[in-house]
Description:
Strand order of the largest sheet: 1-3-2
Helix content: 40-55%
Number of strands: 3
Amino acid sequence: MEQAVEPRYLSYKQAMKYMGIGSYNTLHKFIDLGLKVTMTPAGALIDKHDIDSFLASYKK
């Protein structure tokens, strides 16, 4: 039986779900605060590793 492989690079919608946020405004605020976005010919993608690093930098 094959296991589904989750993508490392996420669309904005997928990234929001991964982070547990429901607002594009919040996502864009995080991007303004330094969350890295990879621009590709197919559109903007966000690396899960960058999300984890970004969130960890705000952990107290």
